[in-house]
Amino acid sequence: MKVTREQAAANRAAIVKAAARLFRERGFDGVGVAEIMKAAGLTHGGFYGHFASKDALAAEACGVAFKDTVDRLAGGRGLAKGDLAQYVDGYLSETHRDRRDIGCPIAAFASDIPRQDTGIQAEYAQGIDHFADTLIGRFPSLAGDGGDGRASDRGKALLMMSALVGGLALARAAAATDPELSTEILSSLKAELTRGDTAG
User: Fold this and answer.
1) Cβ–Cβ under 8 Å, residues 15 and 57
2) DNA-binding residues per UniProt (predicted)?
3) Which CATH number goes with the domain that contains 187?
4) How many Cα atoms are found within 13 Å in the side-chain-facing hemisphere of 190?
C-alpha cells in the first residue's frame, strides 16, 4: 500500500523524535538505526527512504533537539520572565541530571560532537549560538552594563551556559559512584550562579 505524503512526513518526524531522544540518552555511537526505527514504531527497512545515512539523521535530530530546547527557553515554560535563579535551579536539578533523554542537548552531546560528521558539528554549533542569544533575551540580568554592549551580553550568556553545562556534565559523571559528590556539585553551583540575586 502506498504511503501518503502526509504519512511519510509523520513517519519522518517520528524517526527524528525517537533519534533525538535516544542520541541524548546514549550518544550518537551508542544506538543504531534498527533501534531508532523500532522506537519510532517503524521497520528498519524503511529508514533509507527518509535519510541517506545515520549521520544525516543525527544532524537533523541534533537540530530538532536544540529547537525544542530553545523554544522552551524562549517561551519560559513555567518561568517568570527574567527569573534566572529559577531557571538555574531547574537546569541543575537531579531530575535533569538523571534524564539525559529529554534534557539539554548541549550537555548531552558535548563529548560526542568532536568525533562526529561535520554536518552534525555544524548543527551543534548553530544550536549553541541560538541558545546563547535566547538566554540574553530571556534573562535581563545577563545584559551588558552599557560598556561593551552586545559583546558583553554574549560573554555573560556564554559564561552562564558553560557553567550550567559543565556542572551538569560533572554531576552526571559522578552520580553512579559518588551520588553525594554529584548532589554537592549541583547545589554548590546553584548557589554560586545565583549569588547576589542574579535573577534581578
Assistant:
1) yes
2) 32-51
3) 1.10.357.10
4) 17
